[in-house]
Amino acid sequence: MNTARTTYEQAFSALRASGGPSWLPALRREAMDRFSALGFPTTRNEDWHFTSVTPIAERVFKVAPTRSGPATLSPADVAALVIGDPDWHRLVFVNGRFEASLSAFAGLPAEVRVTTLAEALKESPEFVAEHLGKLASGEGQTFTAFNTAFAQDGVVIHVPGGEVVEAPVHIVHIADAQAAGAGIHPRLLVVAEALSRLTIIESFASTGSFGAAYLTNAVAEIEVGNGARVDHYKIQRESTDAFHVGTTQVRQGRDSMYHSFSYAAGAAISRTNVYTQLAGENGETRLNGLYLIDGTQHADHQTFVEHLAPGCASRELYKGILDGSSHGVFNGKVYVDPVAQKTDGKQTNHALLLSEHARVDTKPQLEIFADDVKCTHGATVGRLDEDALFYMKSRGLGAENARALLTYAFAAEVLETIEVDALREGLEALAFARFTQSFGEQH
Amino acid sequence: MLKIDNLHATAGDKEILKGISLTVNAGEVHAIMGPNGSGKSTLAQIIAGHPGYVVTAGSVIYEGKDLLAMPAEERAQAGVFLAFQYPIEIPGVTNAYFFRSAYNEVRKANGKEELDPIEFLDLMEKKLKLVEMDEAMLHRSVNAGFSGGEKKRNEILQMAVLEPKLAILDETDSGLDIDALRVVAGGVNALRRPDNATIVVTHYQRLLNYIVPDFVHVLAHGRIVMSGGKELALELEARGYDWVKEAA
Ligand SMILES: Nc1ncnc2c1ncn2[C@@H]1O[C@H](COP(=O)(O)OP(=O)(O)O)[C@@H](O)[C@H]1O
Ligand SMILES: [Mg+2]
To answer: Does residue A93 sit in helix, strand or coil?
Structure first.
C-alpha cells in the first residue's frame, strides 16, 4: 500500500493542523504509525482468513468533506432510514459529522454526560485522555489504528455510579452522496460506572447507493463497571456498495453484564468484531447477532470473549440467512484464563442457506486453561426443513409463502433476544418484509 | 369424491404400495387398518402430496380432477386434509399466525374474502372449544414442545379451522388416553357433513367405537387384502392381523 500510505500520510498531516488538547496529537501520531506499519491484513492473517479486504486496501478513501450550507436531511428523512422511537435520546451524524439540528438528547439525568467527542475534548479533556484508546489501543489491529488516526468525531458517554439511563441512547450514522469515496471513522467511548445502567443503539444507514464505495470504520470502547449493565445494539444497514468494519472492545467488572446484539444486512463487505474481557468475578456476557445477506455480500462476525476471572458466564447466539452467492463468516474465540474457574461458556451459531451458491465458514476457537469449566459450542449450516415445508403446504400455504414463513421463523429466534420493544418490532417487521414481500400483513 | 385405482408407489428403491384401489363417496367414513409398515401412512402422504414418493402406476381422481398432478397446497385448497401421524414442529411460527395464513390462503383460492386477525380470533374461539384447547395454544409455536396428545389435538384443530371435504386422519388415536380420544373423536364427528368424507387410518379398533365407519379396509404389504363393514374391525381386534395375512 505504498502509494496509499503516502496519500493517507498526507491526508493525516492536513487534518491535524490545529486544535485539541496537547496529548491528542501524540495519540494520533502513534496510531498513524501503527496503521502504516501494520498495513491492511491479508488472508494469511489467521483472523482474516475467510475475509479478503483487498477491495478496501486497493482504494484510498478520502476524508469526508465537511458540510457547507444547510443540512441536506430532514428529521423525517432520518426517521425513514433508521428504526427509531421518539422516547430515545438521539445523536445524528451525517458522513461522520455531528448534526445538531437532527439530534435530541436533552432529557438525560443531570449527572449523566452524553456529548460528541469534539465537545468532550474541549469540556473534559482529562476524562477523555484517561479512557480514549485504552481498551481499543489498536495494537495489532489495523482498522482500530486507522480509526484512531482519522476519527473526526464520535460520542462520549459517561454514566456515573448508580445512575440509570432509562431510554436508549441512539447514535445514528448516515452516509449520503457526499460520502462517496470517503472513509468515515466514528468513535464511541462509554464509561458506565458501578451499578449504572445504559442502553446504546448504534444505527448505520445510507441514503442510497452512490456508485463509489465508502468505508465506515467504527470503533467503540465500553467500560462496564462493577454491577453495571450495558445493552448495546448495532444495526448495520449500510449501502450494499459500502464497506463496514466495526470493532467493539469491552471490559467488564465484577457482577456486570454486557449484552450485545448485532444486526448486519448491509455493505458489500462487513466485518463486525466484538471483543469482551470478563475482568471481575461473576460477570456475564451475552452476544447475539443476525445477518441477512444476498447477492455477492460478505458478512463476517468475530467474537472474542476473555474469561479472566472466576464464575463468569458467556452466551453467544449468532444466526445468518444467506441468499444469492453471499458469503458468511463466524469466528468465535473464547479464552479461559487459569484463574477463571467455574467459567460457563456457550457459543451457538446457525446459518441458513437459501441458495446453492451461498457459503458459510465457521470457526470456533476455545482456549481453556482452567480445569473446572463448562464450555460448549455448536454450529449448524442447513437449508429449509423439507418436512416443515410440506406440512405447511399441506395446510394450503403456497410454496413461496411457506418458505418465507419458515425463513422468518429462523430469524425470529434471535430477534426475540432484543429487549428494546420498538427496536425488536422494527427489525421483525424488516425481516418479515424481506422474506415475505407481498405476503399478508405482519405478526 | 375420491377414486384410487391400482396405485403403485415407491420410495427410494422400495416398492411400498402395490396396487391399491379404493373409492370414497361423499358422506362416508372409511377406516383403513393394518399392521405397522403395511403402507397406511404412505397412502395418506401420497394423497396429501408428499414429494418423497414416486407413483409408478395407477391414478387418484378427486372430484373429477387428477389429484396427483396437483401440488400439495392446491390439494389443500381444494379441500383435502391430512392429520399427520407425526405432526411437524415449526419453532418461531405461532399457531395463530400459521392457522390464519393457511385459512386465508384457502379462502383466497376459493374466491372468498380473507379474515382479519380479530375476525379470525372469533372463529378460533369456537374451534378451540370443539377440541377443548386453551387459547394460550394459539400463541405457542406450531407443535414446538407440544406433548403427543397436544399435537394430535392441534391437528384436529387445524382440521376444524379448514373444514376440509376429504379428511384423512393418520393414527390420530395413537398415544392418546381415553379422554383425549373422546375429545378428538367428538371433534371429528362434529365436523361430519353429508357432503364431506373421512378416512380414518388406525392400528386399533378402539377409535372406531367413537368414529363409526361405513367401510373397513385392511392393508397388508401394500395391498388392500380385505374390505367389509364395521364388524370387520371387531373381528380383526379379536383375531389379530396374522389372520388377515393368512387370509390374504
Ligand atoms: N420415505 C420412505 N423411504 C423409504 N422407505 C419408506 C419411506 N416411507 C415409508 N417407508 C417404508 O414403507 C413401509 C410402509 O411404511 P408406512 O407407510 O409408514 O407404514 P404404516 O403407516 O402402515 O405403518 C415401511 O417399511 C417403511 O419403512
Ligand atoms: Mg403410519
So the answer is: strand
For A191-223, the pLDDT digits (tens) are 999 999 999 999 999 998 777 899 999 999 999
Which residues in chain B have their CB less than 8 angstroms from residue A397's CB? 73, 101-102, 105
Q: Dump strand ranges (E) for chain B.
A: 2-11, 14-24, 29-33, 54-62, 65-66, 80-83, 90-94, 141-142, 166-170, 197-201, 215-220, 223-228
Query: Probe ligand 1: pick from B8, B10, B15, B41, max atoms within 8 Å of CB?
Result: B41
Pocket test for ligand 1, best of B40, B42, B47, B172 (most atoms within 8 A of CB): B42
Ligand 1 test: best mutation among B7, B14, B50, B223, most atoms within 8 Å of CB? B14
Query: What pLDDT sits at residue A18?
Result: 63
Q: How many CB pairs under 8 A join A and B?
A: 82
The secondary structure element, H or E, covering residue A31 is helix A24-38
Residue A438 scores a pLDDT above 80 = no
Q: Do A398 and B73 touch (CB under 8 A)?
A: yes
Does residue A324 carry a pLDDT above 70?
Answer: yes
In the predicted model, is pLDDT for residue A439 greater than 90? Answer: no
Q: How far is the CA of A268 from the centre of ligand 2 (A)?
A: 49
Task: Supply the residue whose CA is at minimum distance from atom 2 of ligand 1.
Answer: B11
Q: Is the CB of B16 under 6 A from ligand 1?
A: yes
Which ligand 1 atom is the nearest neighbour of the CA of B44? 17
Instruction: Report if residue A102 sits inside a domain.
Output: yes
Number of domains present in the structure of chain A: 2
Q: Give the cell for residue B247.
A: 387370509
Position A5, amino acid = R
- Residue B246 pLDDT: 66
Low-confidence ranges of chain B (pLDDT < 50): none
Out of A212, A246, A280, pick the residue that ends a domain.
Answer: A280
Q: Give me A240's grid cell.
A: 450494499
A396–B88 C-beta distance less than 8 A: no
DSSP run (H or E) holding A130: helix A125-131
The answer to whether position A363 is within a domain reads: no
Q: Tell me the ipTM for this assembly.
A: 0.96
CATH code, B191 = 3.40.50.300
For residue B196, the enclosing domain spans 2-247
CA angle A380, B99, A408 (to 5 degrees): 30
Task: Flag whether pLDDT at A252 surpasses 60.
Answer: yes
Determine the straight-line distance between the first and last CA of chain A, rounded to whole angstroms. 50
Determine the pLDDT at residue A208. Answer: 85
Determine which residue's CA is closest to atom 4 belonging to ligand 1: B11
Chain A residues bordering chain B (beta-carbon distance below 8 Å): 385-388, 390-399, 401-402, 405-406, 408-413, 439-440, 443
pTM (two decimals): 0.88
- Quick check: B73 and A410 CB within 8 A? no
pLDDT tens-digit map of A223-246: 999 999 999 999 999 999 999 999
Decide if pLDDT at A1 tops 70. Answer: no
What was the pLDDT predicted at B180? Answer: 85
The total domain count for chain B is 1
The residue among A221, A252, A280 that closes a domain is A280
- Given 3-state DSSP classes, what are the helix, strand and coil percentages for chain B, each rounded to the nearest 5? 40, 30, 30
Contact (Cβ atoms closer than 8 angstroms) between residue B117 and residue B141: no
Q: Specify whether A6 is located in the same domain as A129.
A: yes
Amino acid at B159: M
Answer yes or no: is A204 within a domain: yes
Question: How close does chain B come to A353, measured CA to CA in Å?
Answer: 18
pLDDT digits (tens, 9 = 90+) for B225-242: 999 999 998 888 888 888
Domain residues for the domain of A181 are 2-280
Whether residues A158 and A45 share a domain: the answer is yes
Taking the centre of ligand 1 as the mean of its atom positions, its distance from the CA of residue A395, in whole angstroms, is 22
Report if residue A56 sits inside a domain.
Answer: yes
